[in-house]
Design a protein that fits this description.
By secondary structure, the protein is α/β, with parallel strands linked by helices. Helix content is 54%, strand content 12%. The protein is built from 13 helices and eight strands. It is globular, with a radius of gyration of 20 Å. It binds zinc ion.
Length: 347
């Protein structure tokens, strides 16, 4: 049997208005003398004081770094700056980009990393993967966070569309797992039943509760827990397989064709509708669920044109040829792509 490594987060705290305990949380991890904090400018405006107060109480020194974008050059610069801090831990505070930046920087500098998500728009808060913008959008494997610290109060105050986007990223697991099974069957890829089931469970929670959410609003805590356990499923699988299939390739293709349009989870949700149809799954239920959680289901809603959708469907598999997905089994001509998007109501 081939050996298999599972790297997992060591400590996960989910609380409400608990930012004052952040310093104590870090001390319980590795008693850092100094930490490097990476976040965007808006997050700093809102949280800087509270975080600094908590760190000072715990006698932890700190240095702030501002993340502007996830371009490879920006990441390199932050890495150079963080290195000069001589800190014992890197913390990423933000909706996605800052957490990704901190994840990659800490990996390259061989330092432990803590994620403090301020929005729940995708499953990166507990996963070992980083999405990077360079000539071609892709994911890099780094290390799993050493710790994850969540203040649900902050997540609740973020715009509702971010949480809805998180639901889209969870629904994507339904497609990803089917693709993984296909890869196992067709090319003998390793398939981890436990991590697959765990990732599936977090998708099911959204599918089964969406009707309730449409009336009472999204349950931030449940969705955060689902996103964390999806990230943990990737850690157990040792790859992004349980959470990323053809629908993610479609989302990456849109990142390339129409950069800046739609959120990651929104694009994965729309991709799930079409890939679900290709896989012979109940794609209409996916549409219904996305609508109920308030996530977009059409190209128009995310400001993408009909042609961009068609092109994304046609190039998606090429972005990652080694990943076996349903798109390997279809000759995605322009006409087929058009029909698929049309039948599913995406265009
Ligand atoms: Zn994702």
């Amino acid at each position: 049997m081939q050996s298999h490594t599972m790297e997992l987060p060591r400590l996960i705290v989910i609380g409400e208005k608990n930012l004052k305990e952040f310093g104590r949380f870090l001390n319980s991890l590795n008693k850092p003398k100094k930490v490097s904090l990476i976040s965007g400018i808006n997050v700093q405006k809102i949280l800087k004081q509270k975080i600094e107060k908590s760190l000072k109480l715990s006698q932890i020194e700190f240095a702030w770094h501002t993340s502007k974008d996830n371009h490879i050059d920006t990441l390199k610069q932050i890495e150079i700056d963080v290195k000069k801090d001589h800190s014992n831990l890197v913390v990423g505070i933000g909706g996605g980009r800052s957490v990704d930046t901190a994840k990659l920087v800490s990996f390259n500098l061989d330092l432990p990393f803590v994620s403090v998500p301020t929005a729940a728009s995708h499953d990166g808060m507990a996963s070992p993967f980083v999405s990077v913008k360079s000539d071609k959008p892709h994911s890099i494997v780094a290390t799993a966070p050493f710790g994850v610290f969540v203040d649900i109060d902050i997540i609740k105050k973020a715009p509702a569309k971010l949480l809805a986007s998180g639901c889209g990223d969870l629904i994507a697991n339904i497609i990803a797992i089917k693709d993984w099974q296909l890869g196992h069957k067709k090319i003998g890829e390793y398939y981890g039943m436990y991590s697959a089931d765990l990732a599936m469970m977090s998708a099911k929670i959204v599918m089964e509760n969406s009707h309730k959410y449409s009336k009472e609003g999204l349950d931030a805590r449940v969705i955060v827990e689902a996103l964390i356990s999806a990230g943990v499923a990737s850690c157990i699988a040792g790859s992004s397989r349980p959470c990323s299939g053809a629908e993610h390739l479609f989302s990456h293709a849109l990142d390339k064709i129409s950069p800046g349009k739609g959120l990651h989870g929104e694009k994965c949700g729309i991709g799930s509708i079409m890939m679900g149809k290709l896989q012979g799954q109940d794609w209409k239920r996916i549409v219904k669920t996305l609508k109920e959680v308030g996530a977009p289901t059409t190209a128009q809603q995310i400001g993408v044109t009909e042609n961009e959708i068609i092109k994304a469907l046609m190039i998606a598999q090429e972005l990652r040829p080694e990943r076996y997905t349903i798109l390997k089994e279809v000759d995605m001509t322009k006409k087929r792509a058009f029909n698929l998007a049309k039948i599913t109501g995406v265009i």
